[in-house]
Backbone:
């Protein structure tokens, strides 16, 4: 099998005034371990170049990071947003549109899931701890412990996600204060935490493979037989 080229959306990070662009190394390790060739893209590219950047790529991974700006889902800033990056929003919406137009499989992770939901017409909780109710949500943002599986998700039987991870429940890590509020019409939920927060969604119709998860499966790439790496393997299979 020729290893497929998999485009990865990057971010810009500030290291004491020095700005870097790229992705957390775990994304590269996970895709490589799953048999793909990661191709790094940066939101510093012109949005108009998204199409050219995607040429020759067989799949797209939308990665985690900043909050999607609420103007993208026609909502006012409620005052509890984390960091946003309007240029990244714009670039990734272009990348997603390109992947869609080309019929490419897409794996969307955390912010990536939120971006896909917004791109397809859904909305977001801007800040789960202050907006979710009447019962408080679980702690979905446990700090920088990427290695800790802090809550459980139930996976919808017969979903694309279930086929990919080959299990019905999964302990996941959790680093998000946002979540899907109104699910986009073209998506169907494929996993939920015990408090009812949507933890994964996928394309509802028979279009190209599109799975989004709110946890960070790339953090567990070292578990070579684990369900998280199987998600990347599923993407690589679809891309091949
Ligand atoms: Mn969570």
Residues:
């Amino acid at each position: 099998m020729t290893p497929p080229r998999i485009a990865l959306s990057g971010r810009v990070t500030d290291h004491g005034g020095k700005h870097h662009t790229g992705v957390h190394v775990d994304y590269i390790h996970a895709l490589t371990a799953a048999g793909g060739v990661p191709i790094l893209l940066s939101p510093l590219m012109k949005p108009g170049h998204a199409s050219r950047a995607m040429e020759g790529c067989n799949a797209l991974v939308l990665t985690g990071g900043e909050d999607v700006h609420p103007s993208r889902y026609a909502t006012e800033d409620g005052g509890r947003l984390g960091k946003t990056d309007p240029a990244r929003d714009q670039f990734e919406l272009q990348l997603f549109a390109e992947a869609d137009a080309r019929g490419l499989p897409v794996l969307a992770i955390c912010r990536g899931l939120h971006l896909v939901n917004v791109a397809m017409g859904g909305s977001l909780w801007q800040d789960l701890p202050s907006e979710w109710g009447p019962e408080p949500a679980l702690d979905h943002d446990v700090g920088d412990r990427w290695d800790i599986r802090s809550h459980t998700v139930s996976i919808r039987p017969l979903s694309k996600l279930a086929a990919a991870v080959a299990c019905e429940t999964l302990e996941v890590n959790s680093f998000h204060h946002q979540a899907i509020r109104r699910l986009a019409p073209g998506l169907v939920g494929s996993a939920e935490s015990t408090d009812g927060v949507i933890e994964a969604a996928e394309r509802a119709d028979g279009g190209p493979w599109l799975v989004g998860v709110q946890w960070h499966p790339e953090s567990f790439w070292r578990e070579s037989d684990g369900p998280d790496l199987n998600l990347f393997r599923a993407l690589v299979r679809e891309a091949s």
About this structure: The pocket of manganese (II) ion is lined by residues 140, 151, 174, 176, 193, 199, 214 (CB under 6 Å). The CA atoms of residues 3 and 36 lie 5 Å apart. The two ends are 8 Å apart (CA to CA).
